[in-house]
Design brief:
Radius of gyration: 26 Å
Strand order of the largest sheet: 2-1-7-8-9
CATH topology of the largest domain: Cyclic Phosphodiesterase, Chain: A
CATH superfamily of the largest domain: Cyclic phosphodiesterase
Largest sheet: 5 strands, antiparallel
Strand content: 15-25%
């Protein structure tokens, strides 16, 4: 091998493990999960590095300083104390210049405030546009989630037999199946109004059932099943046409395990059946789960029964919340 070809061969050798990981589903999921976990730590480091490069770019003509400053401020976040301090001082400086008796400084202050107001409106419009566009592409589920007191026993079995446990999915009863919808903002508004008019009801997981056709072990719902079916019918009336609903024969139900191999499935079913105890809880809300990277799910919004809105995460649109209240 020639020494001259080493600069071409070494990057290829370094890229081989990455390509191998991306081509294999399980390894790709592990890599994406790790990246999702370390991203909150890496993002501010990359942001401050871009800001340093931006400051150097303003001094040196070989770098585009403004671009790096904008990227760095975006990665760090506009709510960071230092970014907020800089924005406040910048606005105060423009306001001081606008009130200055010097005509040139007053003109610069007025133009700066006008340009800043236009920029903020455009940035707000872009953020809303990209948020709505991302929402339409993300898969989501509307579910009933067991409370913390019930999760302990259910997760004992799910951690052993249910792959969804490793995908950050809590024990849940699906109302709306995994879906994408361009009408999701309107659907969330209608769902908030619907849940605000409903009353809490009791749910009891009474027995364990084996479904060999779907390779799943379910815990079926006893008391509370009519209320869940009624809730799904009401959601179906307000939902857009492209949303899908659970069509399982055993429904309503909660998945405890999913195993392809029949003998292992039968063994897991017998193990769960021996140790399972009926679980009861009061359903007071429905939860909208959203898929982010691969099969990693997050609680995005919680819709309370008999109240307009119980809580919301930072991903919920303020406009949706205001209209739902």
């Amino acid at each position: 091998m020639n020494v001259e070809s080493l600069p071409l061969v070494l990057p290829g050798l370094l890229a081989l493990p990455i390509i191998w990981t991306v081509m294999r589903p399980m390894e790709r999921f592990i890599m994406m999960r790790a990246m999702w976990r370390i991203w909150p730590v890496v993002r501010p480091i990359v942001g401050w590095l871009c800001i340093v490069l931006g400051i150097l770019g303003i001094i040196l003509p070989i770098l585009q300083g403004i671009i790096f400053l904008v990227i760095g401020a975006t990665l760090i976040g506009r709510h960071h104390p230092l970014i907020r301090w800089f924005r406040v001082r910048y606005k105060q400086l423009l306001r001081t210049w606008r009130r200055s008796p010097n005509r040139l400084l007053a003109w610069i202050g007025r133009r700066g405030e006008q340009a800043l107001a236009i920029l903020e409106r455009q940035m707000l419009h872009l953020r809303q546009h990209f948020q709505l566009r991302a929402k339409a592409r993300r898969r989501f589920r509307v579910v009933l989630i067991a409370p913390a007191a019930v999760r302990q026993q259910l997760n004992h079995w799910r951690s052993r037999y249910d792959p969804a446990y490793r995908n950050d999915l809590p024990p849940h009863i699906v109302l709306v199946a995994t879906s994408r919808s361009s009408h999701r903002p309107q659907f969330e508004q209608d769902l908030a109004r619907l849940c605000g008019a409903l009353e809490p009801f009791q749910i009891k997981l009474d027995q364990v059932v084996l479904d060999s056709h779907e390779h799943r072990i379910f815990s079926t719902v006893g008391s509370g099943a009519p209320a869940i079916r009624s809730l799904r019918e009401q959601i179906a009336r307000i939902a857009p046409a492209e949303l899908r609903f659970s069509q399982r024969q055993l429904w309503p139900c909660l998945t405890l395990g999913k195993i392809r191999h029949q003998s292992s499935l039968r063994s897991a079913y017998e193990s769960i059946q021996r140790g399972f105890e009926p679980q009861t809880w009061s359903a007071t809300e429905v939860v909208l789960l959203e898929e982010r990277i691969g099969s990693i799910w997050h609680e995005v919004r919680l819709f309370s029964f008999n109240r307009r809105l119980l809580a919301r995460s930072n991903d919920a649109s303020p406009l949706i919340v205001e209209e739902a209240l």
